[in-house]
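REQUEST FORM: STRUCTURE PREDICTION
Request ID: SP-0412
Submitted by: Lab K.M.
Chain count: 1
Length (residues): 449
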Amino acid sequence: MGSEPGQFPASRPSSGDRRRAPRRQQDRRLLQRERELEAARLICQALSQHVNVDELVENALRIALEVVNAEAGSVLLSDDKDEKLVFRYVIGEKAEQLRGTAIPWNKGVAGAVFQSGEPAIISDVARDTRHLSTIDSSTGFKTLDMITLPLKRWEGDPIGVLQVLNKREGQLNKDDIAILTIVSALAAQAIEQARLFESAKLAEVARLLGDIGHDIKNLLTPVIAGAEFLQTELNKLFGSMVTMGISGTQASQDLCNRVIGLLQDAARRIQDRVKEIGDCVKGLSTPPEFAPCRIVGVVDDVIKTLHVLADEKNILLRTDGLGALPSISADERRLFNAFYNLIHNAISVVQGGGSITVRGSVDEAGGVMHLAVVDTGKGMPADIRDSLFTAHAKSNKVGGTGLGTKIVKDVVDAHGGQISVESKEDVGTTIHIRLPLQQAGSAVGSSAR
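STATUS: Completed
RESULT:
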């Protein structure tokens, strides 16, 4: 049919255009394959050089952002115990503060992808009701577009998710998903292998600790028996001295009895301590044995045990307000270990002439006891402080492992409490512990004295 008056006939592609179209499409496919191969090469090269989980996560995320030219991103790994996704590594403006933050593993886009195991591409997050805008609000970062992929083995449930945000040029698209799928699959495999490697190392450490604990128990047995024999003999000797009317006998006997008592307590606590360290390494937590407990007695025992070490460094150990605290339902042995760790660690960083103070108060309205271990030490850098009571605790002491702080956190968790830290370099550190005044089902409460 002819064209209407005043209209031009529709143009038809020339034979040359028709021949070039498949070629251009083929070129695009080849370019996409080159991008995918380059992404695979980069991720394989990076992951083959590391066995540490943190290094693997960091490198995987950096490569993911590089291959799709995105501004920011994060890797969230699952915490099966608490059913949460934890920001393990974050890259982007103002994003570092998110590291260690956890969200429920069924919330947000990350939760949806983790649950379904299927990737999601969102061109405008403002129009997606699943997006957790509170994350942006807390960091000041504005998310525009996003790709979220599950981190999972070739077969199996996801171990977390990988997110990339805000493509620098254009919008994130299906081609980017194809590339990121390669990165996420290889990264998940490497992360899982690194976790297994770390677990194997911990299992070996736990086995060695079991052997060491057995040896320590055997070595301490004659010490304990010897202390009991010595006390019996000293009691006989001092009894004879009293009969003979020798002055100062009672004072000397009291001193010897105190020293022997400290020796026996220390031997028993060493055995308990080795067992608890072994449990900690194995990821186990012995159920607490709750009973009426006075915090002042626990802390006094710790100070008696550590006062010689503190005196050698001219460090003052003191308490403030503990005598007025009520009894609570607690595991006294485990609280001793927690305060021993905290005070012993503080002694190592406080200079001569400094002090370590354990303070206590009660929040009746909140139903909690607030305890604080305050030192005048050198403080700690922000990265050490922020990781202190997390699963990724680091130590700023030479040869430190961070295991002591994990034990403290486990003790506080076992009591249903909370722990936090304030620290400023060259000023000092304060560890805050909040314990419930009454455990569930316990008759010991804030009215008990």
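NOTES: The chain has two domains: 24-198, 288-391+403-449.
Reviewed by: T.R.
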